[in-house]
Amino acid sequence: MTVADLAERAIAVLRDNDRGGYTVPTKGLYPFQWNWDSCLTALGQSHYDEARAWTEIETLFAHQWPDGMVPHIVFHVENDGYFPGPNVWRTNRPTPTSGITQPAVAGFAVRRLFDRGKDREMAGARAKALLPKIDAWHRWFYERRDPKGEGLVAILHPWESGRDNSVDWDAAFERVPTDGIEPYVRRDTQHADAAQRPTKAQYDRYLWLVQHFRSFGWDNAKLHDASPFQVVDPGFNAILIRACADLADLAEALGGADIAARNRRWARRGVSALESLWSDKHGQYLCRDRITGQLVDSASIGGLLPAFAAIPAGRLATLAATIERQAKALRFTVASHDPADPRFEPKRYWRGPAWLVTNYMIADGAHAQGSAELAERLVRSSLKLIEQSGFAEYYDPVAGEPCGGGHFSWTAAMVLEFLAMAKHG
Ligand code: DGY
């Protein structure tokens, strides 16, 4: 397949999933707007329609909560094909949304749209309007998810990490009960192979948490302390830290001195706090369970994602060596879990498969910090995977087979990004 063919196919996927003001991750499995999917999808759209890319993120922020949170799903339409829908979340919003959040990529994405915008006037005006909204979301994170001011925020639900069924959550999930869950029927397994999705035991706990938070009327002033699941995920924090640093740069360029100073402070504090999650034994960062105070013995991609933030050069070099070591057991990098761990499952969602979005964030950070070799390896591996297996949700990193949903927006968006990286170096 030629580069032009690949780009054309990626754009066709994005256009096909475009619902006007927002893009669905894929038809069937995910029929609404997802937070981090949208922000990363906008990067792909910016290669062929800048105005449309801005709209993607603006639509998401039009559904920001008054307290600053940006929800992980916006239910723009009714669709029984997805569970859990608005009647389970019951968040009482004008347009129904979920009640939890997702990785804060918006600050990074908006800065990138601004930097590459050919229409400078439009880029300036639209970035400026989003600045205070993204700043409010960042403030919400540090107020509501870091009540003791540690510099790192906790997730209260695995869905917030975006890495739903990672091994990272197994131990903490032992503490989440399953009594009193309303009867439910999963829909995801009607669209995708059940062997490539989370288990029923995990779904029970996902739902118990949703019902628990709902019983507090989704009051974010109460949820952190009331949750039996509070995990500090290095990947989630690294994305937020990068977004704060990018928002600070953007605010400086656009005359928002307060926003810049605040976000710079959060980013700096976050980078030093990440050190407390470092594991010499694994050569990467680990999650910390905030309830027990212990590091979680699980070498997942969450602990490699800090490459996306401005971590010390020595740490980045060790992460690169860890990725290299793992790659010896794989055909495609980066696996979402260490293949040497007996808990590694190459086809099950976030317990092993490779994802283009995580490859992209690691490659981007590596590139920005002068680790060109790692960045190039990831670009090559990602494009080879697509040529072989198409625009899937995720891929078996050993066999290269496509897994989960097909015709996936953020995969297509990342292909356009990787093609641009391959061209410009
Ligand atoms: C799902 O339904 O699988 C999503 O990941 C939750 O956001």
How would you explain this protein's 3D organization?
The chain is mostly helical. The strands form four sheets. A two-stranded antiparallel ribbon has the order 1-2. Strands 3-6 form a two-stranded antiparallel sheet. It has a two-stranded antiparallel sheet with strand order 4-5. The longest helix is centred in the N-terminal third of the chain and has 25 residues, at 120-144. The chain has helices spanning 3-16, 35-45, 50-61, 86-89, 106-116, 120-144, 158-161, 170-173, 188-191, 200-214, 220-226, 234-253, 257-274, 313-327, 356-368, 372-389, 409-424, and strands spanning 33-34, 73-74, 231-232, 278-279, 284-285, 288-289, 394-395, 402-403. The protein has 17 helices and eight strands. Helix 16 (372-389) packs across helix 17 (409-424). 50% of the residues lie in helices and 4% in strands. Bound molecules: (2R)-2,3-dihydroxypropanoic acid. Residues 72, 159, 164, 188 line the site of (2R)-2,3-dihydroxypropanoic acid (DGY).
Radius of gyration, taken over Cα atoms and rounded to an integer in Å: 20 Å
Helical content band:
40-55%
How many strand segments?
A: 8
Strand content: under 5%
* Low confidence ranges: none
Bound molecules: (2R)-2,3-dihydroxypropanoic acid
Lateral strand order in the biggest sheet? 1-2
Order of helices and strands: HEHHEHHHHHHHHEHHEEEHHHEEH
Characterize the overall form.
globular
In round numbers, the mean pLDDT is 97
- Tally of helical runs: 17
The main pleated sheet reads as: 2 strands, antiparallel
Going by helix content, strand content and strand pairing, the class is: mainly alpha
Distance between the termini: 20 Å
